[in-house]
C-alpha cells in the first residue's frame, strides 16, 4: 500500500488544495501551486479533485510502486516513463507492483502533478497536508520527498476518468498573466506603467513556491516609497526600489513592504505554479469589468467535468 | 478616520485608513472591522495590517460591488465602537546577553544603560497590529522613541524562534527560527508558534502584550 522514493528529483512535495483563511496569522494558503493541473490529475484517477498528490518541480523523480496502482500525470510536460516505456500525460494508467516510474526534465511549465488513485498520506496541519517548507508544516515531516522515503497510498475512491479534448491545460515557457491594478499602481512612473504591460520579463533562478524575482526593463516609481509593511497576496507583483519586480506565489509572504503594482486575476492564478526559472513572463492588462466574465467562462468549462473544482 | 475602499486586483478589496505613522485608534478600527468581516464568512482571507485590511473573496461567487457594499455596511455599523479588542498576554523575556546580541547597539543609540533600555521596553503595553512574514511573526505597535533603530544592512542567516526585535519604530517577535534583519534585544522561552499545540498561535492580531523581564 505504498511507493518508495528512489530519487526525490529537484523538489517533490505532497500537496492538496491548501489551507486558506490563515493569512492573518502569517500562514499562506499554499497548496498545489497550479490547482488546475492538480485537479485534472486527481480527476483522471477517480479521486476527488483536492486529494493529496505529488507536486514534482522541474523533474527528476524516480519511484517504485509497492503495489498495483492507477496513476495520472498532468501539468508541466515531462518525459515520464514506466519501466522504460513512455507514459502518456493527462491519462489514467495502471502500474504493477515493482514498476519503476521515472520523470525526466520539464520541457514546458515547471510543476507536474502525479496523482495516484486513493491519494497519498502525509501529516495534516490545519486541515491540509500541503507542504509548507519555511515552517516545516504538512507533507512528510514538513519536508520534501527524500530518497528512501516510503509514501503510503490511500484507498481507491472511484473509477478513472478520461479528459475530453480541449481540456488539457495549455502550458508554455512564456507565461502570460492577465492582471489588474494593485494598491500602489499609481506610485509607478508613466514609463513604468507602460513597460509592465509591454516588456517580457524573465524568471530568474530566485524562483520557488514563495515567489519569483523577475528581470527586465527597470520599472521606475514616481518617487521613493516609504511604505509600512502591508498585507500581500499570491499573484501580487511588487516593485522594489531597484525596479526589478517580484511576483508572489502560492507560499508567498503574507505581508510586504514594496509597491504592490499589479494583481493577477483569479482566473489566471493557477498559471503562477508553472513559472520555471528562465521562463518568460508577460503581463496583460485586464479590466475590472471583464475579469468576472473570464472567470465564469473558465469555471463553467471545468465545472461539469471536475465536481467541486473552481478556479 | 473614514477609510477608502479600493480594488486590489479583481478578487480582493483594500480598505485603507489615512494615517501619518502609527495610530492606535486606526488600528482599533482595523481590528474591529476585520473581526466583523471574518465573522460574516463571506471572505476567503481577511488580513489586517497596521492601517489597512485586505479581504479576498471568490469572484466566482460574489462581485466586487457587492463586496464593497458589504464592507461599507460593516463600516457604518462598527466605526463608532470603542471597546478594546483582544486579550492581554504576559510574555517573559530574557533581555540582553546571548539572547539579545544587539542590546549594546540599542544602548549606544539610546545612550542608556541596559537596565534602562529594559525598563523602557518592558514598561509599556504593546498591541499585536499584524502577523505575517513567517507563521506567528507578530508585528507590534511602536516601541518608545529612544529605542528606534534601523534594521541590519545585511540580515542574519538565523534568528532563533522567540527573538524580540526592533526595526525602526516597530517591535516584533519571531514566531519561528528564520533569517532576519531586525535588531535583537531579547528572547522569550514561550513558543509563539507551535504546530503541535492544539492552539498553534500564542498571539492573535488585536491582542495586547506585556513583556516581563526575567
Average pLDDT confidence of chain A is: 94
- The helix content of chain B is 10-25%
**Stretches of chain A where pLDDT falls below 50 for ≥5 residues?**
none
Judged by helices, strands and strand pairing, the structural class of chain B is: alpha+beta
Beta-strand level of the residues of chain A, as a percent range? Answer: 25-35%
Protein structure class of chain A: mainly beta
Number of DSSP E strands of chain A: 18
The major β-sheet of chain B equals: 7 strands, mixed, barrel
Q: How large is the radius of gyration of chain A?
A: 19 Å
Order of helices and strands of chain B: EEHEEHEHHEEEEEEEE
Helical residues, percent of chain A: 10-25%
Large-scale geometry of chain B: elongated
* Uncertain residue ranges of chain B: none
Could you explain the architecture of this structure?
The complex is a heterodimer of chains A (311) and B (214). Chain A is mainly beta. Helix content of chain A is 11%, strand content 33%. Chain A is globular. By secondary structure, chain B is of the alpha+beta class. In chain B, helix 1 crosses helix 2. A seven-stranded mixed beta barrel of chain B has the order 5-12-9-10-7-6-13. In chain B, strands 1-2-4-3 form a four-stranded antiparallel β-sheet, with helices on one face. A two-stranded antiparallel ribbon of chain B has the order 8-11. Chain B has four helices and 13 strands.
